[in-house]
Amino acid sequence: MKQLKRWWSAGGGLLHLTVLLSSGVLRVDLDLYLLLPPPPPILLRDELLFLGPPASSAYELSPVSTSGGWGRAGRLHPKGRELDPAAPPEGQLLREVRALGVPFIPRTRVDAWLVHSVAAGDADEAHGRLGAAAASSAGGAGASLDGGGQAVQGGGDPQAARSGPLGAAEEEKALAEPTAQVPDAGGCASEENEVLREKHEGVDHSSQPEENEERASAQKENSFQQNNENENKIAEKPNWEAEKSTESRNERHLNEVDISFSLEDLLQLLSSQPENSLEGISLGDIPLPGCISDGMNSSAHHPVTFSQAISQDVNLHEAILLCPNNTFVRDPVEKTSQPQEPFLQFNSHTTNPEQTLPGTNLTGFLPPVDNHMRNLTSQDLDLNIFDEIDLMSLLATENDLDQIDISQLFDEPDSESGLSLNSYHNSTSVTKFNSSPSVCEGATGYSSDYDLGAVGGYYQEPSKLCHVDHDSGFHGDLTFQHVFHNHTYHLKPSAPGSTSEPFSWPGKSQKIRSRYLEDTDRNLSRDERHAKALHIPFSVDEIVRMPVDSFNSMLSRYYLTDLQVSLLRDIRRRGKNKVAAQNCRKRKLDIILNLEYDVCNLQAKKETLKRERAQCNKAINIMKQKLHDLYRDVFSRLRDDQGRPVNPNLYALQCSHDGSILLIPKELVASGHKKETQKGKRKERRN
DNA sequence: TTTGGCTGTCATATA
DNA sequence: CCTATATGACAGCCA
């Protein structure tokens, strides 16, 4: 329990545990399971749906939590069960829990209280609650958390909290069976069993009311029957899968030794849960991203209990085979023989009805991905992980499958391809994980980091092909993880027939696939098709946009054939010229538009000038008229020496320089004008 | 079928 | 000399 406490305090919890998936081993996040109430809400996108009534009618819906994260819906909990009255208020709990940095956002007051207790150092008490929770849920109520609350309510005594409905023998059986019956429980199984047994003996002393014992026993029996069936099925799996499992476990064990104890401790609690509770627990409630949730779902829906899955350290490949809805199940008999749980159809977390069509296989596709042939399909990655397929074949396989624009299929509005063409130095590509089981969409598309790519024929560790970054935290729904892709490809051209697919597309999926391949091929540009044909490990956009230094270094660094180099240069030249042509046309259009604008402006200015000219002429005419009138008026008042009126036809008025006005005969005025004009002409000639 | 617009590409000039 | 850019010209596609 100290290890549990230390593990949790060190930031343990779901995130910490799921990091183990990087080794390719499915590891269940038991802590969250313990924190979840048994009635399984199924997460359909962002909403939690409660599928059908719980096993017991004594359930009620708790208020919707607004704690953020994935606590968006109310949860079922047993009626009449109250929380620990000594527990702090929910708001305070949430604040304290958040302050502790626990990577789990409690949704209910009970969650918060449990997390708070564990993270704050009260691990023993919390364990008591957890144990009581598990025991209580095993009693049929299926409310682990609230059962814990009840245990706490019973005085907060750890002993009282540990009390459960099961007898010691039954609990020992329950704890021992999941691990003991698994033939290949891993190298650390015996050691873990010892620890588990010790803990079990110290913990599981039931003193719960006897009314729960009968229900618990009945459900336990059902659970064991299911376990046996599932174990038999697991035992029938091919040897190579078992070997892989063992290898994965051994590898993982080196890294997990510090927390394996905690896992078993949690397993102990889980093992005491009734089968229906376990079976009902869906990862839909837990927004486990990507492969994790997928694997969990597969385990949940398949008649293999979580206990088995956990104790066996079921690897991803096994998880694939365990999923009845899995599109990559290679044994059709096994696929079709699995009972379909009623809520299975919701596990695709999609609103597209095509996904729920049996045999469509579309659930296995990754959500919208970049169309630039950068993504390795789920099938490819599947093979990479489990079959250690050569990357050469990956390259060939992607030829067929990487172009499928799943966004058109599944309408993932919040999708992000993450495979940014411009992220030259970002080796982490974001890829969404589909909720479909075992679809670890390692979009190991073309490298966006030229320094990391080993195009010349080397590939890095296969384990890195699908590294799930669980530090990225949770999103609101069953979303996706950042995947560290190894964009490493061989450039060996593959024969046309080498584009074999790791699985067959049955029926309708085949048609859909071919249709989308046609569409995507049609949408590809000529250079893209050429690059694809020659397996150029870079997108056209990258080739065009990368600096010349990077381009040259790329040409020199990687082993490229002359044809590939020529094609790369042509692609780059054409791409740049295409951009230049676009810019040129845009510029030309801008110039034309500017010229048109200038023309309009000039035309408007011309019109304005015309109007002003007309106005000026009009004013001039008015002034002339007024001057004429004034002239007439002056002459009408003029008299000669004899008192007679002056004839305006013989005389004219002339203004002198000093401002005086002279009455001059017109003959003189005409001769004077002639003289002045002659003088002016002379001056002009002189000048 | 014709036509105009859009786009990609090539050839060439220029910086 | 190489590269990037700009631009005219041409061809193909499409509404």
UniProtKB/TrEMBL annotation:
The keyword Transcription regulation appears for this protein: yes
GO molecular function list: DNA-binding transcription repressor activity, RNA polymerase II-specific; RNA polymerase II cis-regulatory region sequence-specific DNA binding
Biased composition (Basic and acidic residues): 194-218, 230-251
PROSITE patterns to which the protein is assigned, alphabetical: BZIP, BZIP_BASIC
Domain BZIP: 567-630
Ranges of biased composition (kind: Gly residues): 139-157
Extent of Low complexity compositional bias: 219-229
GO cellular component: a single term: RNA polymerase II transcription regulator complex
UniProt-annotated stretches for the region Disordered: 137-251
UniProt entry keywords in alphabetical sequence: Activator, DNA-binding, Nucleus, Transcription, Transcription regulation
Subunit structure of this chain's protein: Heterodimer with MAFG, MAFK and other small MAF proteins that binds to the MAF recognition elements (MARE).
Described purpose of this protein according to its UniProt entry: Activates erythroid-specific, globin gene expression.
Alphabetical list of PANTHER family matching this protein: NUCLEAR FACTOR ERYTHROID 2-RELATED FACTOR, NUCLEAR FACTOR ERYTHROID 2-RELATED FACTOR 3
Assigned protein family: Belongs to the bZIP family. CNC subfamily.
Protein name: Nuclear factor erythroid 2-related factor 3
Organism of derivation: Callithrix jacchus (White-tufted-ear marmoset)
Gene behind this protein: NFE2L3
